[in-house]
Amino acid sequence: MKYFIGTDHAGFEVKDFVIDYLQKKGIEVEDLGCYSTESVDYPDLAHKVANAVLENEGSKGILICGSGIGMSLAANKHKGIRAALCHDYYTASMARKHNNANILCFGARIVGKGEIESILEGWLNSEFEGGRHQRRVEKIDI
């Protein structure tokens, strides 16, 4: 499985930490930017990652900004994207299990590296449960 990652300037500082964490688990990661702490517009990166996930079947994405809110709002404008703003292991796990989220969002100004590891573990260790959740997920894409 391939992951596409994108951040704005607020998320830039933790991006390499996330990439390294995923690669140590044998996960292929493609960095779609940004590439410095110079100010950028978060929707541009959210759209880039959302499009990459949609164009590459079975892939997933990670978006990081200051709060995670802007990235999740922008990514969710794309039909077929279910970007979940997660703050801990539980929210990340439930986003996968019940919502079949395909993009993980979090705020670099909200969570530290220890919590980021926990979020990633919740995300990576959980699979979509289907069943009653499938019909609910289908109602998202209207």
Outline the structure in words.
With 142 residues, this protein is α/β, with parallel strands linked by helices. Helix content is 45%, strand content 17%. It is built from 6 helices and 5 strands. The protein has helices spanning 12-24, 42-55, 69-75, 89-99, 113-124, 132-138, and strands spanning 2-7, 28-31, 60-65, 83-85, 103-107. A 5-stranded parallel β-sheet has the order 2-1-3-5-4, with helices on both faces. Helix 1 (12-24) crosses helix 5 (113-124), helix 2 crosses helix 3 and helix 4 packs parallel to helix 5. The chain is globular, with a radius of gyration of 14 Å. The model has no long low-confidence stretch (mean pLDDT 97).
User: Which stretches are low in confidence, meaning pLDDT under 50 for 5 or more residues running?
Assistant: none
Number of strands: 5
Instruction: Give the strand line-up of the largest sheet.
Output: 2-1-3-5-4
Using the CA coordinates, give the radius of gyration: 14 Å
- What order do the SSEs take from the amino end to the carboxyl end, as H and E? EHEHEHEHEHH
Proportion of strand residues: 15-25%
Shape from CA axes? globular
Largest sheet: 5 strands, parallel
- Tally of separate helices: 6
Helix content: 40-55%
Distance between the first and last residues' Cα: 27 Å
Structural class by SSE content: alpha/beta
Mean pLDDT: 97
Enzyme class: isomerase
InterPro entries: RpiB, RpiB_LacA_LacB, RpiB_LacA_LacB_sf
Keywords: Isomerase
Pfam family, one: LacAB_rpiB
